[in-house]
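Section 5.1 Outputs to date
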Amino acid sequence: MHCDGRIVEGWEDHPREFCGVFGIFGDPDAAEKTYLGLYALQHRGQESAGIAASDGREISLHRGMGLVWSVFQDPNIMPTLRGASAIGHNRYSTTGSSDLMNAQPLLIRSRGDQIAAAHNGNLVNSLELHTMLEEKGAIFQTTSDSEIALHLIARSNKATIEEKIEDSLSQLEGAYCFIFLTNSKLIAVRDPRGFRPLCIGKLENAFIVASESCACDIIGAEYIRSVEPGEIVVIDESGISSSFLKAKPKQSSCVFEYIYFSRPDSIIFGEKVDKARRMLGKKLAQESPCDADIVIPIPDSANTAALGYAQESGLRFEIGLIRNHYVGRTFIAPHQRARTMDVKVKFNPVTGVLKGKRVVVVEDSIVRGTTLKQLIRLIRSAGAVKVHVRVSSPPIISPCFYGIDISSRGELIASSHCVEETCRYLEADSLAYLSVEGMLSAVPEGDLQCTACFTGDYPTEIPQNFSKELFAADCGRIQK
């Protein structure tokens, strides 16, 4: 919605996170395990996928556009990814940046040695570094800020690969989780503020690093712990060791990982997502009770928060909307004339549950509000007599610069419209958001969470020339 009241139509009415990363060292079926890990992390990136594997002598690579299964469906691909170590990447990009050249992992050869990299996050000093490197003769093969780190590594005069990586990353500002693969080592690094999640797992003699613990679960690995902010984890034949980047700013982990992005069965930042999400719903019920008959979620991401709301309020939890899981995020109906068809294809109301009922609809977040408006109409068409909306996060008023595709301020309905105006636009009987204080009290270590999209209080300095118009984030896609 623009300040003049115009709504920006769009299918996706949630923020979008860009990437999932996975790495394994010490398993003879490393590429196959990586494939499964990426499958578990598919929700973090649905545009492209890739795997790089090392047999100790050479790193092989396969990348492609599409979902994990489609990228690796050819049975001749996996046998080419030989070795006991591998890293993988799922990518999600903004409109217009879909290109195979930006698919990851990235693979380079520098001074005779190969190194592959998979990155989740977004760098706020990308343009500055990109310009500096170009002026020094660097030739970029992609429009991703991930490549900047590899250029810095290649130019470093430090002695070891660990020192080169530390030298490179010390020049970066913003959010990143990197997994690097050489012929003999796997090195994972989380930025000093810990914006994005990264965890360590173990499967027999192999070690795993992944964005979320669900990627460990799928291969039967044991979750060990979260990678600490600023930690450099090195895994090689001698085992696992770690050190830390010198910078030690205040931790600013992304609270949206708890609200929406991560799977509810995952452990992130050392805590269970399901537990935090239920508590968000309970806090919402405490702050914004409602005289109603039933509670329903907008599936699937709001399911757990809705359960928490129902438990705290004493209202009956019901499944009032059925989601068609065979419709992708990029679905476009042939000869489509109305956006409402998107919603009808993806969701269907359960008339027997909704007819004659006063309904509390729990949603985890609202960006534009266009999809939710259509869903409220669907719920009313099924016979609901009242529709009350409760949101398990505060109003989103500011864009994100740390690896989440939250729209520019002009497209955020809450940035220019009060709750009452938004309620009227949604055609709801009432609307209430969770407060910032309630949100932070519901999640672990609330004082160490980044709330910039809700408060406009950014944990890093944002360069004046950094904007959504200059940087269409594609794991940090640079546009000049």
